[in-house]
Amino acid sequence: MSDFEHVFDAPPPGAAADWTISQNWRAYTEVEHDTWDTLYERQMKILPGRASDAFMNGLKALDLNTGGIPDFAVLNPKLKALTGWTVECVPGLVPDDVFFDHLANRRFVSGQFIRKPDQLDYLQEPDIFHDVFGHVPMLTDPDFADYMQAYGKGGQRAASLGMLPQLARLYWYTVEFGLMESAKGLRIYGAGIVSSATESVFALEDASPNRIGFELERVMRTLYRIDDFQQVYFVIPSIEALKDVTLKDFGPVYDALKGQPDIAVDVVLPDDRVITRGTQSYAARGGRF
Ligand code: HBI
Ligand code: FE
Fold first, then answer.
1. Ligand 1: distance of its center to the CA of 171 in Å?
2. Which domains does the chain have, with CATH numbers?
3. How far apart are CA 133 and CA 69, in angstroms?
4. The complex's ipTM?
5. Is the pTM of this model over 0.90?
């Protein structure tokens, strides 16, 4: 049993074979709805001018600010009409193969629980705010919707080729912590950043992390930390460019990666396209935020 509260070895009682559970929206308490509103309002003071247009447009299109935790019965028809995606509730982290199968079928899995009022600033497990506020608005962008489905299909294949760690890094440095270039400067599209009040500022404005142009093999070799701000952010030129990368066959990429060493989080390589070079290493920064 992991130290996470919401990790199970098999679908827990009440979950379907694909690990989905009912959202049971009526069971959310006033405190839980208020937590959503508090987090939403806090992010909306920070994200204009920092989050990508795709994210902000998605947030508007899905109208996640009707007061309290969104009811998937109301959200899903809107999302499905836009890009064919739906959000399904799961009890927590699901096994990779289950996760990939849902993505490959345009189903995004979201935690059902929301963090406690005393956990507003950080939690290790994805709760419904991280998943629905952080991830779902980007699924209204057709190119990102295609990317996420391609990722799911790629995941099923990577598992059979023993390349899951490399694929998980791709997810981490794009879907969770990705930045993109725009006419107005760097913008956030990664859910792990956009759902965090502190990292939304750190990722764009702090001098300590490296910001490096996205390159598939480079990203797939780069380690990541799950318990602190990132020490490197990878920057894509556009969502379309990211989608195009994953529409090609990863087989030759995996062959090229064989035998290549992993890259530490705070390293800059000679042929990196450096957008901003960090001012200090992770250790010098004294570790956790
Ligand atoms: N399960 N519910 C849930 N949410 C995730 O984001 C998730 C997961 N299982 C595995 C996983 N992410 C990552 O390992 C992916 O890189 C596969
Ligand atoms: Fe996530």
1. 9
2. 25-284 (1.10.800.10)
3. 10
4. 0.94
5. yes
